[in-house]
Amino acid sequence: MTKTVSLSTPLDLPCGQILPNRIMKSALSEGLGTAHHAPDVRLERLYARWAAGDYGLIVTGNVMVDRRYLGEPGNVVLENDSELDAFQRWAKTAQDGGSPIWMQLNHPGRQANPITTDGPTVAPSAVKLDIPGIPTPRELTDTEIRDVIERFAVSAGIAEVAGFDGVQIHGAHGYLISQFLSPLANKRSDRWGGSTANRARFVLEIIRRVREAVGPGFAVGIKLNSADFQRGGFSEEESRTVVEMIAAERIDLIEISGGSYESPAMMGRPAVSARTRAREAYFLDYAETIREVAADVPLAVTGGFRTHTGMADAIASGACDVVGLGRPTALAPKAAQGVMADTSATLPTTQRSVKLPRRLTGTAQVKALNGALDLQWHTDQLHTMGAGGDPDPHRPLWRTAVTTVRRNGIDAFRSQRGHLGTSDKKAVRKFRIERAVGRYVANPVVAALTRVGITTTFATELETIGRRTGLRRTVPVSAAFDETGAWVISQHGARSGWANNISANPTVRIKQGRQWRSGTAELVHDDDVTKRVRTFAPNPVFASLTAASFRALQSDPVSVRISFTDR
Ligand SMILES: Cc1cc2nc3c(=O)[nH]c(=O)nc-3n(C[C@H](O)[C@H](O)[C@H](O)COP(=O)(O)O)c2cc1C
């Protein structure tokens, strides 16, 4: 007689560890690391909430193996044992509730945040992400590849010393491991590229080195993409081959997800069939197809699970052994307890997106924007719990927009500033930050909005004449229009390139809605910039956004008056 498996049935892992039940809190990047990228009391408060939730397994948000390359500004980094106490407290908090805790280890590769990265990002090949403003990465050398592999092993070893029960290697979502696997991102002709076996060498070496660095009872899992959901990318068929290779290593759990920054399938996919809709989880059908090749390695599926019925069916049918929950745990920290106790339980459905006309919502830019906002909205909930508060399901999206700028601006820069020595270094750093913000944040945002037909006065364009070249130069600016002209703020006072252009030649053009207007511009040094910014954006969201950017840039803004000459 076959034993019925339910959500509360414990699961034996190959390493000997036993998960107390089948509901896993999946990795959610918290962005709650200190200025030195260590855990602190905020992470302890957050994990105490999940610790009380009766999860079969808690996986941390991604922890970076190299502090030079972060996915986001507030990432935790584990490179050495200098902050061992803090990591020990973090692990213990989760274990106090009875759940094992695994640390997710990651290297972002070309998806590293350009603002926090000195110099170019790195990747298997110099292939740029198809996202405006993200720079082209540099190809890793063979020695550097070995160094990254070693870093995963070192971090895993320290995680074990700190008391974590296991690690999960992040092999999904377009980060470095998934870049190596993808034929679109990996164009190498050496032993790390070409055939499936060569592209899989990186992940297999990482698993082997991690295994060697930890004890036999320590769990080693992996999160893997079912596919990249891009034409010519890592396909389901190839993924099955890689699962078979991975299953031949000593691995304890394979979690299935999918997608990347370019195609964020992990955050939701249109259900192609009524069956998939009924089953909730969009990677479940795929998981069933790898059962045989995964052999005895338990499978977890994450993405879309919301009801007791959906989860219980997935486990009872044998489609997977563990169900992963991401976003629901940010709103309902005791989700596992609730789902196991109540057969009619439904977790909150919380996909957040901006309301736009239908013709716009299918564009890649809008999808990417919505994916990012959804992610940030849930990150806000984690920060609220880290500060000791309760999640707020009614949090408005505009608040998320503001906190995102604050967090990714000021926090990112604060941690970098800690390393500054001389004032010269400071100036260089500041210049780099300003340039990066302009190049990778402001310009692409304006470009993306314009492409999808959204023109705003908050974000518009100003054309000046280059003082050395005599050529027209367009820059993104915030502007407040009136009858006779417009006010613009030069964030860097008289130092910015375009402000210098104006001093040499005041002839400008500025875009009002879809129309280019001609005018003359002058810097008004005695204007009160702070008051001026408020008039720009009576809407508190935009006023805060602008103020936050100024603070983040530590800039010295000056008002600029443009008087129209075309009427
Ligand atoms: C705020 C946020 C942060 C995330 N961070 C990570 C991460 O660090 N590592 C990871 O593998 N997945 C991460 N994910 C993806 C989730 O683990 C999960 O795959 C995704 O949310 C789909 O599951 P869900 O429908 O239950 O939310 C993140 C998702 C969100 C919303």
TrEMBL record:
Alphabetized GO MF terms: FMN binding; oxidoreductase activity
Keywords tagged on the record: Flavoprotein, Oxidoreductase
CDD domains: OYE_like_2_FMN
Gene3D superfamilies: Aldolase class I, Electron Transport, Fmn-binding Protein, Chain A
UniProt cross-references to InterPro entries, sorted A to Z: Aldolase_TIM, F420H2_quin_Rdtase, NADH_flavin_oxidoreductase, OxRdtase_FMN_N, Split_barrel_FMN-bd
Residue ranges occupied by any NADH:flavin oxidoreductase/NADH oxidase N-terminal domain in the UniProt entry: 9-333
Protein name: Deazaflavin-dependent oxidoreductase (Nitroreductase family)
